[in-house]
Each structure stands twice: as C-alpha cells, then as structure tokens.
Amino acid sequence: MNNDSAKTRQSTALTRNMNSSMKQQSSPAAIDGRTKSIKRKASSDKETPQKRKRVSENGEEPSQKRKRSLDLHLQETESTSSSVDTGRGSLSEGCIGMGGVKRKADDVEEPIRKRKRSPDLMTINKETEEDLTSSVEACRVLFEDKYTQEKQLGEGGCGSVFAGYRKADHLPVAIKHVPNDKQFCKQTDENGNHLSVEVAMMLKLRSAGHSAPVSMLDWYDLDEELILVLERPVPAVDLYEYIEANRGSLQEKEAMIILKQLLDATIKLHEEHIFHRDIKVENILIETGTDVPRVRLIDFGLSCFFKKRSLYSAFYGTTAHVPPEWYSRGTYRAGPTTVWQLGVVLFDMLHSYSFETKQFLDDQLKISTDLSNDCQDFLQFCLTKDPEQRPTLEQLQCHPWLR
Description:
The chain is α+β, with helices and mostly antiparallel strands. The protein folds into 2 domains: about 70-80 and about 235-400, Transferase(Phosphotransferase) domain 1 (Transferase(Phosphotransferase), domain 1, Orthogonal Bundle), CATH 1.10.510.10; about 125-230, Phosphorylase Kinase, domain 1. It is built from 10 helices and 14 strands. Strand 11 and strand 12 form a beta hairpin. Helix 5 runs antiparallel to helix 7 and helix 7 (about 335-350) runs antiparallel to helix 9. The radius of gyration is 24 Å and the shape is globular. GO terms for molecular function: ATP binding; protein serine kinase activity; protein serine/threonine kinase activity.
C-alpha cells in the first residue's frame, strides 16, 4: 500500500478515535418535559413578591442584593436543522481549529496494493496533536494581533465576556470566551464544518442584514474554547441596569417604546426561523446615546433554528421564566414561548419586583392596577396560561396599547 493509502487509514483511525473521545465528553443531560426532572420548590404559604434581584448565571448568589436570572443550559433532545445557510458574506477571520472540522468518511474502496506496516497509533496521535496545537496557536496569534482584550464585563452559564477594541481603528468590541463544555448545540454549515449554534445564528443574521441583534465581527475556534468578537455599542447598558437606574421600574410610555422595538426584532428573528429561547432583561442592551432608547439583542448561545410547528421538550433558558405549558404538558413551541417572554420583560420593566412563572401561576404575582387598561390587557394577553389562546407576535403588533 502506498503512502496515500497509509495516510487514509491513519486519518480514519484518528477520526474514530476523536469521535469516541467526543462522545465521552457529553453535554449535561437534558431535562425532558415528560419526566419533569427539574427540582421544583415545594408549595407553601403564599409569598410576598420580593424586590427585584438578579441571580448569577452560574447559580451562585453574588454579595450584592441584586441577583441575575438563573439560566438553565441543557442538551437538547429534539433535532434541529442539520445545516445552516450562513450567507455568502464571509468574516475576516472565522478561524476553525481542527477539532471543529467535519471529516468525510473513508468509504471509497481503493485498489489492492502492496502491504506496508502502519505507523504506531501513538505516533499518529502525537503528530495530530502537534498539527492541532499549531493550528490553534495560529488562530490565537491572529486574534491577539487584531484585538486587545481589557476588563471583564460579565460571566454567565455560557462563558465570560470582556471589553476590548480592534487595534486598527480602536473600534469597541465585546470578546466572548465560550469553553467547549458550554457549547451545548452545534450546527453544520454548507461546507460540512461543525459550528457553535451561536456562530451559526450570528452568520445567518449577518447575511440577512438585521440590525437589532449585535453583530459578530470575528470568531476563533481554539479547540478548547470558542472566542466570539462582537459589536459593543457605546454608550449602552443592559435593560436590567437601565431599569435599576430608573428607580426599579420604567414609565409606561418608555416601556412601550422598548417593547415595540423588541417585538419587531423577534418577528424578524422568527422570519429567519430563529428561536432565541432566552429573551430577558439581562439579554437586551439599551443604547443610551440618543433621546429614544434603542434596543439590541444579545446572547444567542441557547438559540436554535425552528420549523413552524417544532415542538420542544428539553428546556433551555431561564428557570424563572419557563412557559406554563412546559409544566402542564412537558412541551413548548417557539411562537407562544417568545410571546410569554415578551410579557415577562414588560412585567419586569413596569414592576419593582421580578417575574417568576411559578409565583404568577400560584397567583402570588399580580399585574399592577396602576397601569392603563390597555397596558394591563396587553400584559394579560402575553401572559395567557394556555399557549393555544396566547396571541401571536403579529397579533400583538395590532394591540391598541402599541398604537
């Protein structure tokens, strides 16, 4: 057998070895709606709504009185689109390490050739590790040559985000580091490359020209982690901080301006068959450089592509905002869930305490009667317990409160 044949056998053995390794390093087990394996709080006397708190995304409570909403990141059991059209516009880097490339199966029968001794598997692994290390280091050099990383902006269940800037023109950027074990969903592009779902979403949105989601400028697959370089609007704060800066709640008129932009943005996402799955005040940026606040969506790490009637049983997102149908039926859909999440965001903007689905279902949370009748009606529409009776995103656009 000639050298080409030997290399083919080596590649096949290596691919199987790597695939075996990947299976062993599986994501956390999915929570299936049928088994209801989320640990729920035992029913007790009705609780008084607590002052707004932000629970850290890793589940640990920070020393401050505010807590960031808890994200639940789990492996999905439903199959999503196996491929993604990322558009023709390529990013300037998009450096993919060897660990992120799908290899073609060795299924072509070769002519019989003179047998040669195959190299030792340890030798193959050593050579591959050296190639992989070289590729990863090359990607890291590209990143460090182009960007400067500064202070940490935040840390959550999917990784850490740092401020930074592009060296060529000092453009402000956000640099997101996502460890491999936090990349729960993968997509496959038209070239057969395995992509993080967040990269796939950003490429799709970039090709469609949407302005509400922050743009991805570059991405680097460094094998042990993924680095995303994102647009960083300045000045801007997340909606949670924006609410806190306004004494814990917003005026109805300002909340309507923000909600209307958010509604338009989610409709455009759904037109591209993108289900964000974790819309909340912490994942919404407010640009504050103009008289009218501008809404930007961030963190697509738990998103997925969906079909019109796609049904999900494994829950991804924030536990406090689980749609009621997941508790009652063990399943949820993109449209009704997004409407529910818009209602949660509006509730958080207009009340001094945070929304929690279980408390709302147990009548421990009430919509304020100080709001206008149209606003109360809009909130009741979004937070309708039966998903079949809940309005669509397009129906919300026609509601009198938004006119």
